[in-house]
Amino acid sequence: MRKQLKVWAYAMLRYFTVWAFVAVGPAIAQEKVFSLRAPDVLVESGLMSHLLPRFSLKTGVRITLAEDGLAAFGAEGTPVFRQGDAVWHFSHAGGDYAEAFQDWLLSDVGKRTIEAFAPEGRALFSADVATEAVVQTLALSGDAILGETVSLKQCGRCHVVNDTNRMNAIGSSPSFALMRTFPDWQERFETFFLLNPHPAFTQVIEVTDPFPIDRPSPIAPIEVSWEEIEAITAYVGSIAPADLGAPLATQ
Ligand code: HEC
After folding, report:
1. Would the CB of 32 count as within 6 Å of ligand 1?
2. In the prediction, which pLDDT does 161 show?
3. Do 81 and 129 contact (CB within 8 A), yes or no?
4. Cβ atoms of residues 194 and 178 within 8 Å
5. I want to staple 111 with a disulfide (CB 3.0 to 4.6 A). Which of 69, 127, 181, 225 is the partner?
6. What gap in Å lies between CA 238 and CA 135, rounded to an integer?
């Protein structure tokens, strides 16, 4: 009786094993592949021919480089590695394989693979993108450096823009770092000229109407262009939000 049971169990095991193979069969036949767009500079650096085969080896997912690839390395998406000061991002339109590639790039193994790429003995890429992550995801346009200059010149009369004008600002105006903590800071900066007290003394070139004759600007007016507003917004995006846990006097 016992033996019979054993034989039966063995038969069942074989039966299931066979079926398991049949079931897995079509999945193997279906190719795991996705297409990737990578700028020439990245391809020419050699990093792609270093990374892609190693990822494929681990996961069985093949990546083809294509101009119209659905996934891409570029300026948008998730920061994945750094080349000097530039941070490369990875974006994709969904899909398990592209998602797996992103996870792999951010994993320890992926990071080590990126940093192991050292033609002529020198590592060209670093996987350390931690400090960039917060700022980069905002995808700001505009020139943050110009933004700092304009902010100090035009807004620094009232607002603390950064440490350099801390002493010249008016205490009743909120600091830029404080306003940076508002969830909708970006919208507020882009429309500041509509928000009080600014309309009374602010002109946006080719956007706002001239001050009414009977209500001239009570103080030396501010005049900014749309590009300068974008630059200010880019600059504000690059500064650290005030630590609201700290005493107000230090903000
Ligand atoms: C003459 C002083 C003065 C100048 C110059 C000034 N601001 Fe302000 N700003 C204020 C005051 C005061 C407030 C606070 C208003 C309030 O709390 O109602 C404010 C508030 C703001 C707010 C928040 C508005 C809101 O309602 O959420 C933004 C954004 C802002 N300023 C941006 C700027 C920018 C950008 C510049 C320069 C281009 C600038 N300000 C120049 C006085 C000034």
Report:
1. no
2. 96
3. yes
4. no
5. 127
6. 6
Mean pLDDT by 10 residues, the chain (251 residues): 63 57 52 92 92 92 93 91 87 92 94 91 85 49 88 96 89 91 91 93 90 90 94 92 62 41
pLDDT at position 25 is 47
Query: Of all protein residues, whose CA lies closest to atom 10 belonging to ligand 1?
Result: 173
Structure tokens at 194: 């509509």
Place of tokens 């069969």: 25
Cα–Cα distance, 228 to 222 (Å, whole number): 12
Is 105 near ligand 1, meaning CB less than 6 Å away? no
User: For residue 34, how many other CB atoms are within 10 A of its CB?
Assistant: 21
Pull the structure tokens for residue 217: 């600007």
For residue 189 and ligand 1, the question of a CB distance below 6 A is answered with yes
CB-ligand 1 contact for 199 (6 Å cutoff): no
Is the backbone of residue 78 left (phi > 0), alpha (psi -120 to 50) or beta? beta
Ligand 1 pocket residue status of 173, Cβ below 6 Å: yes
b/e code 144-176 from CB counts within 10 Å (16+ = b): bebbbebbbebbbbbbbbbeebeeebeeebbbb
